[in-house]
User: Fold this.
Amino acid sequence: MHQDRTYRKLVSTEKLTTFQVVVQETDLLVHAEKRLVQETRELVFEHRGYVEAYIKAYPEFMTTLVPWRHSGPAPNIISDMINAGAKAGVGPMAAVAGAMAETVGLGLLDLTDQVIVENGGDVFIKTNTPVTVGIFAGNSPLSMQVGLQLSCKKKPTAACTSSGTLGHSLSLGKADAVCVIADSCALADAAATSIGNRIQSEADVKSALAAGRRIAEISGMVIITGEKIGAWGDLEIVPLINPA
Assistant:
């Protein structure tokens, strides 16, 4: 079912063309140097096809909450999901939104030098100038009060957010937002889920940060729960001016 993603109204991107592509549950907001609607749709169909075919062959892949073991070749998006889940200690579907954003984004980089692909709060970014990503945290008073300024000129960067209080993705915790930065969008997505699963109250923020630090290859994270915020890593946190 299509979900109205009201937080997208808080996004403003200058100099890039913005368009939306929806294919079943996949709902992408894309910013690129030109409109690439059909090309984006084709990439979504291609990579959704790989995921759907794999689930048809291995139904438990869709439901398991623990890392998936697989030997032999697999499509890149499946391998990315499996590897991300293994590093974060969660099931592979915890990485599906980030993996889709990344595979579509990489495909579009053959057609545009700059692209931002957002998929349910999971963002793949490759731009020539720094980008500030606001952190939407539902009813928390800190929601859209701070952002992360990311430099994405040399290589793509991922910013993925998991929440236990909003959205339809499965979370076993109660964090308003866990935002993870990494080179891999699949890993950032899986890590955000893993860290968020550990949070039941504001008292858990410190221990969740400590657990997140043990996940290899993530560069930073921000946790927002109620009125409490915690952060770790190589991050440039900036206040958002009049985000509404």
About this structure: The chain has one domain: 6-239. Confidence is low (pLDDT under 50) at residues 1-12. Helices lie at 37-57, 76-88, 96-108, 185-196, 205-213.
